[in-house]
Design goal:
Helix content is 56%, strand content 12%. It has 301 residues and is α/β, with parallel strands linked by helices. The chain folds into two domains: 168 residues, Multidrug-efflux Transporter Regulator, Chain: A, Domain 2; 123 residues, Rossmann fold, CATH 3.40.50.280. Strands 4-3-5-6-7 form a five-stranded parallel sheet, sandwiched between helices. Strands 1-2 form a two-stranded antiparallel ribbon. α9 links the parallel β3 and β4. α6 packs across α7, α7 packs across α8 and α8 runs parallel beside α9.
Length: 301
């Protein structure tokens, strides 16, 4: 095999990465390094700390147990097998959710997609799709986003885990019965350049289980195509979810264009830009910062 094709699964992490992923402040991590032996960072030629995959996984385990009553001095003396046993013995609901999220992060790092898929299956079977997305999948994706921002995730890893999550949502959507008398009709799509479909698929699922007929256009939809379908099918409302955008993306101009093209149709826009927008949007544009806000609005249209 050509050695140029053998890429590392994930390279190194900074102390800021560890802080973001574990919730433990960098200052505290440095103190733990000085006092205990479970973290042994290496240093670059310019004397900057860096951490391996194994050290990240160790810190995730240590931080979880520490949050739930175990002293660091005691954890430092435990063998990895004992730490793992303690983690799986945690019974508080919050601890269980964090354990699962940590496990998904570790499996993504190792590219163990079979195990990743099995963990998701177990969670969805235990708590259902709706809670599984809100309590496990979305928090996991937030952590993936932190790795993406710092450049410490390979795009292939993000694609692999996103596609597994996407498949789970599609199966759940396919299992929803088509209502004979739908309460409302909704059109869902992502604009050109937006390919992150998980949030949109989840909303499609939530609407269908609530007896709302959906017209699902998917990702990367040109505005002219969305307008054509809207004028033809006349939905009660449209839904757009924005996760990322090009560097030259102008949110002001975009929602004004949507308002003009969808005149008379209430249009919900959720995602990052909606949460941080400080101005008053056009009258038929409704910016939502949470799933609960979206569902409350839809119930009262």
């Amino acid at each position: 095999m050509n050695s140029d094709c053998s890429l590392p699964v994930m390279e190194v992490f900074t102390i800021k990465d560890l802080e973001n992923l574990s919730g433990i402040k960098a200052h505290t991590i440095r103190i733990w390094e000085q006092r205990y032996g479970f973290l042994k960072p290496q240093r670059t030629d310019t004397n900057i700390r860096f951490y391996t995959n194994e050290e990240l996984k160790t810190l995730l385990n240590i931080s979880l147990l520490n949050k739930h009553g175990f002293k660091i001095s005691r954890l430092d003396k435990m063998k990895p097998e004992e730490i793992k046993e303690k983690i799986f013995a945690l019974s508080e609901a919050d601890a269980v959710k964090e354990r699962v999220i940590n496990e998904l992060v570790k499996l993504m790092i190792d590219l163990d997609m079979c195990a990743f898929d099995n963990v998701l299956k177990e969670q969805i079977a235990a708590i259902g799709m709706e809670k599984g997305v809100m309590e496990v999948i979305f928090p996991f994706l937030e952590r993936v986003g932190l790795l993406w921002q710092t450049g410490h995730i390979n795009p292939a890893q993000e694609h692999l885990v996103s596609n597994i999550i996407r498949q789970k949502l599609i199966v759940a959507i396919d299992g929803c019965p088509t209502p004979e008398m739908p309460l409302k009709k909704a059109m869902l799509f992502l604009p050109e350049g937006e390919f992150h479909e998980v949030g949109l698929l989840y909303m499609n699922y939530l609407l269908k289980v609530r007896r709302i007929e959906t017209i699902y256009l998917g990702s990367n939809v040109p505005q002219a195509d969305a307008s054509f379908v809207l004028n033809l099918k006349r939905p009660d409302f449209a839904f757009i979810h924005l996760t990322t955008a090009a560097t030259d993306f102008q949110f002001d101009a975009y929602i004004q264009n949507i308002s003009d093209c969808f005149s008379g149709t209430p249009t919900i826009v959720s995602g990052y830009f909606s949460q941080h927008y400080q101005q008053t949007p056009p009258q038929n544009i409704h910016l939502m910062s949470s799933v609960e806000d979206v569902l409350h609005f839809i119930a009262h249209i």
